[in-house]
Amino acid sequence: MILIIYAHPYPRHSRANQGLLAAVSDLPNVEVRSLYDLYPDFNIDIAAEQKAVERADLVVFQHPIQWYSLPPLMKLWIDKVLEHGWAYGHEGNALNGKHCLWAVTTGGNEHHFELGDHPDFDVLAQPLQATAIYCGMHWLPYFAVHNTFVCDEIALKAAGEEYRRRLTACLSLKEGCPPEVDFG
Ligand SMILES: Cc1cc2nc3c(=O)[nH]c(=O)nc-3n(C[C@H](O)[C@H](O)[C@H](O)COP(=O)(O)O)c2cc1C
């Protein structure tokens, strides 16, 4: 099962992320949890979220990039749901062996990420990647759609098809998504 943890502060104003979701939402065994729809008051149901994660072979974190980072409700989800004794620490092995995919959209192009002492887009994956690995997950090559400020419908459609191809590759594998699968 593929679980998409989706965080868009204004889901109904989204173009890129809605396009990606539309491209995969009819796939079997895909569950989308739109955090800003579920928890407009930021009061996350930790037990419900943990149950959803436990059902999943692949956990996808999908969101638009905001100030080079995650939307606040996704960060809160990570802080609240990945509890000690469940996600890590003594007997905290709920995420062990699951796969993790970061699916992100950005308004800017590659040059937008050349600022600061540690330029490059890959650096932005580091906090989520380290979190996933710390919790025993297999980190997959991320899926990024850049340039959403200017890209046209054709580019967005192609991105949706690629996203669908990546998730379908997971669904077609009986044992989930082993890291050696080529998602490139
Ligand atoms: C508060 C805020 C901060 C943003 N920060 C960034 C950023 O740091 N880098 C970037 O490339 N785009 C940034 N964006 C643009 C969004 O990432 C972009 O609009 C989004 O990926 C498009 O997806 P959507 O059509 O689903 O909304 C920001 C947007 C908002 C609202």
What gyration radius follows from the Cα positions, in whole Å? 16 Å
CATH H-tier superfamily: Flavodoxin domain
Structural class: alpha/beta
Main beta sheet strand tally, sense and closure: 6 strands, parallel
CATH architecture: 3-Layer(aba) Sandwich
Report the CATH topology name: Rossmann fold
Ends distance: 21 Å
Provide the helix percentage. 25-40%
The distinct ligands, each listed once, are:
flavin mononucleotide
* Low-pLDDT sequence parts: 179-184
CATH top level class name = Alpha Beta
Number of strands: 6
Q: Given the structure, what is the number of helices?
A: 6
**Strand residue content:** 15-25%
Number of domains: 1
Order of helices and strands: EHEHHEHEHEEH
